[in-house]
Write a sequence for this structure.
């Protein structure tokens, strides 16, 4: 997921979307980079220890309950 922000400075943040047991319509090849996706779900943060350094790590992600994929011909996003 891409989150655009213009305040305080223009930036784009990428937030991963996690889908457990995706339906066939999500795995039919329409889910390609640049196609708009609408996701409804829960924001969660996962924590783990780095295998290399032993440091604490975390990741913010969306655990999607519902995902709709746009039409690649109409909903292509350019950044």
């Amino acid at each position: 997921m891409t989150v655009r922000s213009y305040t305080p400075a223009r930036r784009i943040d990428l937030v991963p979307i996690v889908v457990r047991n995706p339906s066939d319509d999500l795995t039919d090849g329409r889910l390609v980079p640049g196609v708009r996706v609408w996701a409804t779900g829960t924001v969660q943060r996962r924590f783990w220890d780095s295998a290399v350094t032993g440091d604490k790590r975390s990741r913010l992600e969306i655990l999607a309950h519902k995902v709709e994929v746009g039409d690649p011909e109409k909903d292509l996003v350019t950044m």
Remarks:
- The radius of gyration is 15 Å.
